[in-house]
Amino acid sequence: MMSFNRFVTVLMLLTASLFCQAGVVDVEKKDIDNVVTDNGSAQLESFIKAVKMMDSALVTQYIAAGIDVNSKGSSPYPAVFYASAKNYDDILQQLLDAGSDVNQSGRGGWTPLMVASLHGHQDIVAALLEAKAEQELKSADGMTALMYAVAEKNQTAAALLIEAGANPNAIIGDEKSANKSVLSLAVEGGDTAIIDTLINMGAKVDGGKDRYQPLYYALQKNNILMTDRLVEAGASLQWQDREGNNYLHLNAAKADRQTVQYLIEHRVNYGAVNRAGKLPLDIAAERGNVENMSVLIKVSDKLDRVGAYFNSVTAGVQSSTAILLESGIKINSRDRQGRTGLMIAAEYRHHHLVDFLLAQGVDVKYRDKQGRTALMYGVTANPSKIRIVNSLLAAGSDSEQEDNKGHSALMMAVMAADSVDPAVVELLIANGASSTMAAERISQQITVAEQENNSTRLQKLALLAEIIDQPVVATAQ
């Protein structure tokens, strides 16, 4: 599918090529006679208009009178461009015979060969090639004539260009940059005839560590037949990009289940970890693709499934969390920090997941390696979320429980005064949280805020102090 930028470019080209079709060229004989002497903008405008209108007789008169066929005047494109864009082969030949520069570019770096290839004007393409049009010139979009023909699935034009020596391994933009090749464009477009032609003419089916491999686009389209064709031509399914992603990583989230199954059957490593520390199963879980998860779960060991469980909870994806629990993961499983899924869900403010895990029987009293409970994570989330704190308290969380440093949930709330919801403090106190230590901490923080002249923080602390019955005496400034 054509990108928005390319759509705008093509629209501009079509506008240019169709401009003035409804008008009538009205040029007096004296204007023709004056061409040689002044070759002014009015004459050039009328000449280019005659080309656009396919007025061969008038074009002949202008050429005979000595018009500069390569001058654009105020037009964004030269005359030869319009003849190529509109498929006017007779006028194109007149212009070529008169010495038109076939490699002269117009706006956006577009050449006559590019626009003819884009529209699939095969006779024009052939004529321009015979006139020695340069094939490897690139537009401002970094595209060659062959790329435009391939992108628009113009098979005959593409074949003519390839037969004339177009580079089947050209890359969009700078040749040293990471971008799509001609073959990748063809695969993305899905034209098997052009793909076969390019492969037969030596197009590389593999190359580099960037995500512009032809196989990448075949798999993204879930086109197994095209994938097989590329593999037969030498493409490797064992490829990895610079971030350590293999084709399962890149397709776990969006590809069809059949594509993921195909990759597993062709021994793409489902246990590979990319540089972000993620397995293909992790990626599918984070994106909520339960269809692909069901395929990957069958080949994954318990440790990998536990990791995916924590990733799904972190991402807040209930569907993924549910299918992993159904696969046999224990709901109170802990990560390396000793956190349960409930703690993680509370920390990341996923209230729907907190409620789901509570309904599944998760234990609210578990503590991590620092002695923190899910309630503490909920209170210190940035910002805190009263719905989560309320759900955890209703499920039996102990508001008086302290962590390894002797901090209760209320103390943590006071320490996180900038992000805590005052309603959370009220809720904790209403559920029996002792306020003595918290009141002392607030007094200390108020003193610091006064010294720093931090009025915003002072107001927040004053509100919390009022909630726990700690009077605040304003200090004279």
TrEMBL record:
It holds the Pfam family Ank_2. The keyword Repeat applies. InterPro entries: Ankyrin_rpt (IPR002110), Ankyrin_rpt-contain_sf (IPR036770). Keywords: ANK repeat, Repeat, Signal. ANK repeats lie at residues 108-140, 141-170, 210-242, 337-369, 370-404, 405-440. Residues 1-22 form the signal peptide. The keyword Cell cycle does not apply. It comes from the Bacteria. This is Uncharacterized protein.
